[in-house]
Amino acid sequence: MAHPREGKIIGVRPGQVEVALADGVVTAFVPGQLKSGPRNRRHVVAVGDDVRIIAGEGVAVLEAVLPRRNEVARTAPGESRAPIQHVLAANLDWLVVVVCYGRPRFNARGCDRLLVLGEVSRVPPLLVFNKCDQGVMDPDPADLYVTVGYPVLRVSAHTGEGLDELRRHLRGRSSLLLGPSGVGKTSLLNVLAPDADHAVSEISTATGKGVHTTTRTRWVGLPFGGAVIDSPGIRSIQPWGLSADNLAICFPELATRTDCQFRNCRHRSEPGCEITAAVAAGEIAASRYESYLRLLEGAD
Ligand SMILES: Nc1nc2c(ncn2[C@@H]2O[C@H](COP(=O)(O)OP(=O)(O)OP(=O)(O)O)[C@@H](O)[C@H]2O)c(=O)[nH]1
Ligand SMILES: [Mg+2]
User: Fold this and answer.
1) Among positive and negative, which fits the CA dihedral 130, 135, 137, 140?
2) Quick one: which ligand is closest to 211's CA?
3) Are 210 and 217 in contact (CB under 8 A)?
4) Which domains does the chain have, with CATH numbers?
5) What is the pTM assigned to this prediction?
6) Measured between alpha carbons, how far is 31 from 62 in angstroms, rounded to an integer?
7) What's the pLDDT tens digit per position in 46-55?
8) What pLDDT does residue 206 have?
C-alpha cells in the first residue's frame, strides 16, 4: 500500500529527486504537474526542500513541496526577456561564503556579491577564508569583513586550523557552501563529514583556477549535527530579487547611513550623499563601495 511520508531533498536530477527519510534515502519521480510550476522558475524543487512523497512498491513519487522558510536563488544566466529564477538551495541557517587568499586569488567583487546574495535572501552569511596554511595576504582582506561586522573564520582543510570554530558555527544548522571553484569547499566538507568522501581535484597550474570538480549540489548530514550543502564553484552570480532600491541595505555599513539629501539617492554622484562622503572620508572601504557600484549597474 502506498502511503505519504515526509523527507528532505538531498539531490536533484532531471525529473527526479533524492529524498532522505528517517530510515534511508529514496529516489522519487517528479510528476508533470509539479514540474511545470510558475513560468519564471527554472526548477520547482531544490536541495534542502522538505517534501512529502508517496512511497509504493519499489517506486516513489514526489507529492508536495512543503513551504520554504527561505531560499537562496540566482537569476539564471543568459539573455532572456523574462528573468528566470534558479533556486540554489532552500531552508538554510547560514550561507557560507568560502574564499581563499591565493590559488584561486581572492576576488573582492565576487566575495561581496555572495555576501549580498545572503543579505537579499535573508540567510546570514558566514565568511570562511580557507587554505590558511598557505599564508595570509598582507593586508589581510579578512580584516575588512570583520570591521563590517560579518563572522569571519580563517581555516585550513589540510592542517585542521580553525575547524573547531567552524564546527561550532555549523553544529545543528543547515549551511550552504558557495564560492569560486578550487577554494576547497568539498575539501572542507570531507573533513567535516569524513564518510561523505566527495571528489576534489588539483588546481590547474596554468591558471591557478579550479576545474569545477563538483558538478551537483548535494546535501550532506554532519556527524556532529546539522548539514552542509556543497555546490559547484561559481564564477559570477546575479542575486535574485536584487534591485537598485534594496541594494544598499545589503551592505551593512551602507544600510545604517540614511541621511542622504534625496530619499531615492543611489549613492553615485548625487549632491548631499552621506555614503559618498563617508567613502571620501575613509569611513567606508573603497573596495566595498566599488562592489556596490558594480552591482548597481546590473540592478537598474
Ligand atoms: N593548501 C591547501 N590546499 C587546499 C585546502 N583545501 C583544499 N585545498 C586544495 O584545493 C584544491 C581544490 O579543492 P576542492 O575541495 O576540490 O575545491 P572546491 O571549492 O570544492 O572546487 P569546485 O568543486 O570546483 O567548486 C584541491 O587540490 C585541494 O587539495 C587547504 O586548506 N590548504
Ligand atoms: Mg567541490
Assistant:
1) positive
2) 1
3) no
4) 3-67 (2.40.50.140), 88-230 (3.40.50.300), 248-299 (1.10.40.50)
5) 0.93
6) 7
7) 999 999 999 8
8) 46
Contact indicator for 60, 51 with CB cutoff of 8 Å: no
CA distance 60 to 198: 26
pLDDT above 80 (res 249): yes
Contact 57, 68 (CB under 8 A): no
Closest ligand 1 atom to Cα of 214: 23
Per-residue pLDDT averaged across 195-208, rounded? 59
Q: Phi and psi (nearest 5°) for 278?
A: -70, -35
**Which residues contact ligand 1 via a Cβ below 6 A?**
130-131, 133-134, 156-158, 181-187, 200-203, 210, 212-214, 232-233
Structure confidence by residue, pLDDT tens digits, 5-62:
999 999 999 889 999 998 889 999 998 766 655 556 666 899 999 999 998 877 899 9
CA of 1 to the centre of ligand 2 (A): 40
130: nearest Cα among 180, 77, 69, 176: 180
Taking alpha carbons only, the member of 259, 250, 293 closest to residue 277 is: 259
- Comparing 101 with 227, the larger pLDDT belongs to 227
